[in-house]
Specification:
It contains eleven helices and 16 strands. By secondary structure, it is α/β, with parallel strands linked by helices. It has two domains: 5-86 and 197-269, 3-Layer(aba) Sandwich (Rossmann fold); 89-194, Hypothetical Protein, Haloacid Dehalogenase-like Hydrolase, Chain: A, domain 2, CATH 3.30.1240.10. Helix 2 runs parallel beside helix 11 and helix 4 crosses helix 7. The model has no long low-confidence stretch (mean pLDDT 96).
Length: 272
């Protein structure tokens, strides 16, 4: 198969434990774009703001790659910086997540521009703000958000200990299971997004724009929120450190995120 597109998750897949891209991965990714004309897509639960630096490091602006952010809630053309697709949560959705967060006493956050708004400044919340290189602002009530004119976001997250996040997932599914896309992306993160949005659906839209069929795509991931991405494509790949559920739906198991997993994929499927 002549693959025309590679989509990769970031945390736990492309990024190493220091949240950087290994030089071996950078070299392979730039090469496959330059020599094979492959479209490269960063597909992450991260906000777009926290992905641009990595995209530029991979020269995706030069080679016309795409950033698929917020688990598919936003799609951005790196060459033009144009937002091609956006779908998120409204005021009622924010209120629904806020109520669950208060009921189980675990903090929630939402994203607006370059700022993360959260109910608590816990270690987990500040870790996310730091990783995303975004400002943090605490809010104490829905009325406070309303006064700031905040009535929409691309996604919310509930952030706690792994045990708290499992309770939050159970509670969200019980109360709003049919209303949202709900997935644990890291043991301490529960992501809540528009139910019409996931990485796979947005990648399918991109395929239609670029005239690339799903069977001509490779996707690489490690966690539950990558499942729709891997189920869409012709060649689903798990990194060695992926959860069992992701490995079970993959056709190839690559090396881990710290052993240049993307380089391994590129060397396997492209003659470069």
């Amino acid at each position: 198969m002549n693959y025309k597109l590679i989509a990769t998750d970031m945390d736990g897949t492309l990024l190493d434990e220091e949240h950087g891209i290994t030089s071996e991965n950078v070299e392979a990714i730039v090469k496959v774009q330059k020599e094979k004309g492959v479209k490269f897509v960063l597909a992450s639960g991260r906000p777009s703001y926290a992905m641009f630096e990595y995209a530029k490091e991979l020269q995706m602006d030069k080679y016309e790659g795409y950033v698929l952010a917020f688990n598919g809630g936003e799609l951005i053309d790196m060459k033009t910086n144009e937002v091609i697709f956006h779908e998120g949560l409204d005021k009622q959705d924010i209120e629904n997540v806020y109520k669950v967060s208060k009921e189980i006493n675990v903090p929630m956050i939402l994203y607006v521009g370059d700022t993360i708004y959260g109910t608590e400044a816990t270690e987990g919340v500040m870790y996310e703000a730091d990783q995303c290189k975004m400002k943090f602002q605490k809010f104490d009530s829905l009325e406070e958000l309303e006064k700031k004119g905040i009535d929409k976001t691309t996604k919310c997250m509930i952030i706690g200990t792994p045990e708290e996040v499992l309770i939050a997932e159970e509670h969200m599914n019980k109360v709003h299971g049919n209303d949202y896309f709900i997935a644990i992306s890291k043991p301490i993160f529960l992501e809540i997004a528009n139910k019409n949005v996931d990485k796979g659906k947005t990648l399918k839209k991109l395929g239609e724009i670029e005239n690339i069929k799903p069977e001509e795509m490779i996707a690489v991931g490690d966690s539950a929120n990558d499942k729709p991405l891997l189920k869409l494509v012709g060649m689903p790949v798990a990194v060695e450190n992926a959860i069992p559920e992701i490995k079970s739906i993959s056709k190839f198991i690559s090396t881990s995120n710290v052993e240049h997993g993307l380089k391994t994929v590129i060397e396997k499927f492209f003659e470069i």
